Amino acid sequence: MNPKPHDCVGLRAIAAQVRTGAVTASARVANCLARIEAHESEIHAFNQVFAAEARAAAARIDACVARGENPGALAGVILAIKDNIATTLGRTTCSSRFLENYRSPFDATVIQRLLAAGAILIGKTNLDEFAMGSSTENSAFGTTRNPWDRTRVPGGSSGGSAAAVSAGFCDAALGSDTGGSIRQPASLCGCVGFKPTYGRVSRYGLVAFGSSLDQIGPFARDVRGCAELFEAFCGSDQLDSTTAPLEVPDCLTQLDEPLRGLRVGVPREYRSEANAPSVARVLEDAVAAYKSLGATIVDVELPLTDVGISTYYVIAPAEASSNLARFDGIRYGKRAEISAGEGLEELYAKSRSEGFGPEVLRRIMLGTYVLSSGYYDAYYNRALQVRRRIREEFDRAFAQCDVLLGPTSPMPAFEIGGKTDPWAMYLCDVYTVNTNIAGIPGISLNAGYAEERGALLPIGMQLQGPAFSEALLLRAARMLESARPPKYPS
């Protein structure tokens, strides 16, 4: 695919064309399905494509328009959904053999809100099994490939959603972010990925990985698209007691107005020598772009950046161990065959061993270990203490600046099979995990490119803001996007 400039128009502009009859929802669905038909076999962004259902939904919207009715603020906008978010349409598999035939009896809250706004679901996207991974190579249904270079990963765990948006299979997508699983694949695929503040978006219907870390968020081809999707599904929810009782923020009215006096903090630790040279260059280009827009660059320090990975890989596996205990082969999901004379323990062990892949098993065992008697205080409680210090560190940084700027990933997309050591894979999220640990919002947007062996690879920059500062963070991201507009594979 050759890159081409992209006109950043957002999603509501698309819906406005559908509502006025300038274009039909049916034609838009047909175009996306044709592109999927042409390229999906090379990329494998989807676990399921809802072709007939999407056509039927589009026909209903077109009929609504013909009657002079309003089909919604996102009418005709085509969405892909990460396959760990519950939908009554199709299956919800988490890219795991354990749930490969599971059908949810309900829609997640975010899905209900998007369908009510007139959005059309085109399919469920591939992911690292149970959202545990940074490359989408851990899926039970095969690896997703990066649209920019099919020999490279799209990132993870929401790699299918990022690839679908980047490849033009849909207008936008939903993902989940536990330690960078929206922002890192957005960086590697050259689109925009947004993780809201913990508690800003309902998690009802999201299959839990790390309950104190998980957050649903949008992918889009531009910042405006992310802001519009976010406004459509965020807000408190009686079905999720962790959602904050706050009004939906207005992120759109002033989105295109530059922030006067914006203070952009650049942590010393984000200028690490471990960054690829291309990533270091794009970071300095982004700093220069903000300076040219009138922002003040502030040098700050986040000395706990390097301990974020080890902290995360105590807390997240501990929560995963607890959350995944429900998958036992009895109530639903894969049930193994047992021999005569074998009992319940053998059924549990065989079902989980056959149903879960190696990365999921690794994290369950790690989480069970750190929660076990004799190790709980040494590991889990110690990690919670470090978590508090990481939050305090961000608070001190935001006393000096409005947003933080740095790389989303220390490297561009790497080759499929290129990272076989789990620790090397975990380090891909060194700049993203602390966002989740602190519960603050973060956004990744394309800010430049690297050329490797003739392939043009996108490089994302991440912005982080204080808790519940989504409107400010999106405006700051839009400033950088206006200076460095993205390209997309054609």
Give the overall average pLDDT.
95
* % residues in beta strands: 5-15%
Number of strands: 13
N→C terminal distance: 5 Å
Proportion of helical residues: 25-40%
Strand order of the largest sheet: 2-4-3-5-7-6-11-12-10-8-9
Looking at the overall shape, the CATH architecture of the domain at 3-252 and 483-489 is: Alpha-Beta Complex
The CATH topology assignment of the domain at 3-252 and 483-489 is Amidase signature (AS) enzymes
CATH superfamily of the domain at 3-252 and 483-489: Amidase signature (AS) domain
Number of helices: 15
CA gyration radius, whole angstroms? 21 Å
Q: What oligomerization state is this entry in?
A: single chain
Low-confidence segments: 1-7
Q: Which overall shape is indicated by the principal axes computed on the Cα atoms?
A: globular
Q: From the helix content, strand content and strand pairing, which structural class follows? A: alpha/beta
Q: Could you spell the SSE succession in H and E letters?
A: EHHEHEHEHEHEEHEHEHHHHEHHEEHE
Core attributes:
490 residues, alpha/beta, Amidase signature (AS) enzymes, 11-stranded mixed beta sheet, two-stranded antiparallel ribbon, 15 helices, 13 strands, 14% strand, globular, disordered N terminus
Describe the structure in your own words.
The protein is α/β, with parallel strands linked by helices and 490 residues long. Among the domains are: 3-252 and 483-489, Alpha-Beta Complex (Amidase signature (AS) enzymes); 306-384, no CATH class. Helices cover 38% and strands 14% of the residues. It contains 15 helices and 13 strands. It has helices at 12-20, 25-43, 51-66, 109-116, 159-166, 183-189, 223-233, 277-292, 308-323, 344-355, 358-371, 376-398, 422-426, 433-438, 470-483; strands at residues 3-5, 46-49, 78-82, 120-125, 172-176, 192-195, 216-220, 263-267, 296-300, 403-407, 442-452, 455-464, 487-489. The strands form two sheets. It has an eleven-stranded mixed beta sheet with strand order 2-4-3-5-7-6-11-12-10-8-9, with helices on both faces. The protein has a two-stranded antiparallel ribbon with strand order 1-13. It is globular. It starts with a strand and ends with a strand.
